[in-house]
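Dear Dr. H.,

I hope your travels went smoothly. While you were away I took the liberty of generating a structure for the chain from your last submission, since the lab meeting agenda had it listed for discussion. I wanted you to have the full record in hand beforehand rather than looking at slides cold. The sequence, exactly as received, is reproduced here:
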Amino acid sequence: MNTAKFVYCCDADITQTCLKLVPNAKIITHTKKHNEGVKASEVFDKNAFVKEVAKNDRFILCCDSAIEAKKFKEELTKLCDEREILLITADTEEKIMKDLNLDKFPRIIYSPKIIYGLDSSMERAVFAYYTKKTITSASMVQQVCRCRKITELVFMFANQNIKHPKYKSKADCLTEIKKQTNIANEISALSRANSMEANLYKEILCDTKYVNDCDSTNKRLHFINRLLKKGFVLTQEFDKVSNLDKVKEKSLKDEVEAQESANIIEMVTLSPKHVRRNSILHIPKPRILEFQEIFLNDKLAKEHFQYCDLIIKNNAKSTKSKMIDQYSYLTDFHPNVAISDANKINFVRDFIDQTGTTIKDLLPTTGVKKDVAKKMYENYRTIFEVTFWPKKIPDLTKVDDCELYLFKMLRKIVNTSVYRRDETRVMKNGVSRKKIEIDEEKRLFHETIYEFRKPNEDLVQDGKMLVRIDEGKDDPLTHLGKKS
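The corresponding predicted structure, in token form, is as follows:
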């Protein structure tokens, strides 16, 4: 690019953030609105939404959740007289995704597995159902516009809730990023990125985080505004009466989960996502059914690697190696290192050491020293990205406050594997306190899987498989564990 006379870039959504990479670019704005005059109607009743979809012989249904997409497939298959409906999620087999032509399928449901790239020229209705828990409003619109010939758009949001923003201003966001940078500098002052690259990255990161934070406060409103800018005409053709049958929704979810459980062996064999996961876990085929939850629950899979890192291995050197390389250079940009899972574990391990705690009993015996208590709390807020302020600022020189915040951090890292036994109180330094315990069933679950993958443990980092250089591979860091 640096040696070219001209570089032409074309995209539907070019933001001010993009232009920071090419500050002297000449901008040509395409004023034609591709969806000029297309009706967009909002539905508030889930049953009415499903019936509206079922009326159509040809449709695309966009979702921001894989489980919602699967529930729609279950319900619509019955309503559409068992006609074929293509479902696309991260679990979809590679043979389907390879050279996929959306125009070969009249009825399609997809999760955020499809946001960009694939297009459909078939004239049809488009539907969208959003829980607002994952993708941004911009990505929602991109999902909808995969169809280039939309006859009508009907959309529904699972709730009308709005959220408080994390950041008061863009300056507030930048302040947090600077704090993260300072924490990473304490891990290592060496970085592969030069100062210009590092500063540009922080600026772009700030723009992105702040815009996404603004977007998350009211994704529904931002989605509607984006539709209007693309030429859609907002109409109100459905009653504004919200209705979501929670009993029915749970029943559909149970049906989906029962089907996935029944097909788990096939899924682990054919789904690229699950094939990759088991290339790390090495769970034997006869025992996949026993440990199926780690394939069906992405959060549990992440929890497993963090549990092993903190509780089973408890190896500070191994954790540090994920943040700094063999030459003591940071493995990523400063803000990313500071808030990484590895640094969260590193921080908890330091907290445990400073409070006289052990991994075995998880009960602090002393408070943090006065000269470091304030900084440790500030670092906790930065590393764990805590933006709200408690009614009472904790005093980490006190054992009780240390016990409370240790539990908070453990729940963020290993979540369901740790709990507080309210009915069991122990005496420590003359004070009766609730005990933090590891769930025995979860402990056995994680330790058994760890034994399966232990022979290959030196090839695993942050849940990603690494290929040794001495195996003759061109790329020594071939990641097989990336999210699909």
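Two observations you may find useful: The longest helix spans residues 195-217. Residues 224 and 433 are 51 Å apart (CA to CA).

With kind regards,
E. W.
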